[in-house]
Design brief:
The chain has 260 residues and is α/β, with parallel strands linked by helices. Helices cover 45% and strands 15% of the residues. It folds into two domains: 6-201, 2-enoyl-CoA Hydratase, Chain A, domain 1 (Alpha-Beta Complex); 206-251, no CATH class. Helix 1 (30-45) runs parallel beside helix 2 (79-95) and helix 8 (206-217) packs antiparallel against helix 9 (222-237).
């Protein structure tokens, strides 16, 4: 029986996905990516889920691709092919989720593991965490969407610096650069990430629509984005959560959103 390399639990409207290969700092094999993709799909199909939280067991978030397994079984697949068949579908699946995503980053988030960490709408990192585009050290290029994420998040110069010099970026500096959202003491990481996920999970349906609008903004021109805003605003306005939010505002009380 194969090991559960990815764990999924659902509680209090939060789907918690845990990378579960701590002995290799959660380095991703194709089997682990497959299990991760299955877990994301299960979370998406669960109608009770209103937020996804991704964290990792052990001392690191994800050390990138599992180079130790390369050349064995499915790992004999060339990296470019694996990107097409495993990684790209996973990253697109995360991008298209209808609810917010939080990532809790402990220790290293390296290579494609950094791309996975940055897939969060809110990235919470331990003060001991660091980010590393390690590809140049082994003669490869950034992947997992890194060449798309990085120049948009931190600008061309910093993206090139991270990718070509392959130097560690400490969590505190990543925060200063605007790459991540929060840095907390390592001992408080899981508590803070859970609290963030809980806050989003009890938010309105419009959080998913906000997510959709911002993702689309990278590709739309101004007029298309204005039209998308109008379409999504119409959908948000028709929601029960909008009615509840307005009523709560007028009644001077906290809203009780249901995600509908």
């Amino acid at each position: 029986m194969s090991k559960d390399l990815v764990l999924l639990t659902v509680e209090d409207q939060i789907a918690l996905i845990t990378l579960n290969a701590p002995e290799v700092l959660n380095a991703l094999s194709t089997e682990m990516v497959r299990q991760l993709s299955v877990a994301v799909s299960r979370a998406q199909r669960d109608e009770t889920v209103r937020c996804l939280l991704i964290n990792a067991a052990g001392r690191g978030f994800c050390a990138g691709a599992n180079l130790q397994a390369r050349g064995q079984g499915d790992e004999a697949t060339p990296p470019g092919t694996a990107l097409e068949t495993h990684y790209a579908p996973l990253m697109n699946k995360l991008k298209n989720l209808p609810f917010p995503v939080v990532t809790a980053v402990n220790g290293p988030a390296a290579g494609v593991g950094m791309s996975l960490a940055l897939s969060g709408d809110i990235v919470v990192a331990a003060d001991s965490a660091y980010f590393l585009q390690a590809f140049a050290k082994i003669g490869l290029i950034p992947d997992g969407g890194a060449t798309w994420y990085l120049p948009r998040l931190i600008g061309w110069g910093r993206a090139m610096e991270l990718s070509m010099l392959a130097e560690r970026l400490p969590a505190s500096e990543a925060l200063d650069w605007g790459l991540i959202n929060r840095v907390v003491p390592e001992a408080e990481l899981q508590t803070e990430a859970q609290a963030m996920a809980r806050r989003l999970a009890t938010g309105p349906k419009s959080l998913g629509l906000i997510r959709k609008a911002y993702w689309a903004s990278w590709e739309n021109d101004f007029n298309k984005q204005m039209q998308l805003e109008a379409d999504l605003q119409t959908e948000a306005h028709a929601s029960a959560d909008n009615r509840e939010g307005v009523a709560a505002f007028l009644e001077k009380r906290a809203p009780q959103f249901t995600g509908r």
